[in-house]
Amino acid sequence: MIMSTAPNRRPSGRGRAVRIAATALGVLALTASVPAQAAAPAATPAKPYGTVTAASGLNQRMFPSTDSAVKGTLRHGAKVGLVCRVRAQVIAGNDLWYLVRDARRVWVPARYVAATGSVKYCKDVLV
After folding, report:
1. Which residues constitute the domain of residue 55?
2. Residue 45 phi, psi (nearest 5)
3. What is the pLDDT, as a whole number, of residue 7?
4. 66: which residues sit within 8 A by CB, 6+ positions away?
5. How far apart are CA 64 and CA 98, in angstroms?
6. How close are the terminal C-alpha atoms of the chain, in Å?
7. Burial class of residue 16 in the structure, from the number of CB atoms within 10 Å of its CB (0-12 exposed, 13-18 middle, 19+ buried)
8. May I ask which residue range the UniProt record assigns to the signal sequence (predicted)?
9. In a domain, 73, yes or no
10. Domain presence at residue 58
11. Which CATH number is 78's domain given?
12. pTM over 0.85
């Protein structure tokens, strides 16, 4: 087995700058050749569904009350499936809360959700 005694050398100066520039140009050429894909719009859930109207978003709660733990948030304009509604804590003059169609079983106040479709009362729906 023959071993080389020459030290490992890294390119420096002009040679290194040329390699970096060539790599950058290769990346730019590659990304330019790939067509830009438009972001797919979020799918609208089946009716009934609601659209968040609160400008700052909306907290999802464990139970239909602001005293209940926050389990997540929804952004303004988010569309969520609705299972049913109940009368509970009054929020800005509205006592309705929606059960969100989600594996986590969370609630949102109807005051800040514009419903599309008929949302039945929970007593009339098998949950």
Report:
1. 49-124
2. -70, 165
3. 56
4. 89, 91
5. 8
6. 75
7. exposed
8. 1-38
9. yes
10. yes
11. 2.30.30.40
12. no
Residues in CB range of 40: below 8 A, 6 or more apart: none
Cα separation of 66 and 98, whole Å? 13
- Answer yes or no: is 26 within a domain: no
The strand order across the sheet containing 113-116 reads 70-74, 58-61, 107-109, 94-100, 79-91, 49-52, 113-116
Q: What is the pLDDT of residue 104?
A: 87
Number of structural domains found in the chain? 1
The H-assigned helical ranges of 1-127 are: 14-33
Of all residues in the chain, what percent carry a pLDDT higher than 90? 59
| Predicted confidence (pLDDT) per residue in 64-93, tens digit | 999 999 999 999 999 999 999 999 999 999
Is 14 inside any structural domain?
no
The two structure tokens encoding residue 64: 């239909």
Those residues whose C-beta lies under 8 Å from the C-beta of residue 53, and which sit 6 or more positions away, are: 76, 112, 113, 114
16, pLDDT greater than 90: no
Q: Is it the case that residue 39 has pLDDT exceeding 70?
A: no
Higher model confidence: residue 39 or residue 86?
A: 86
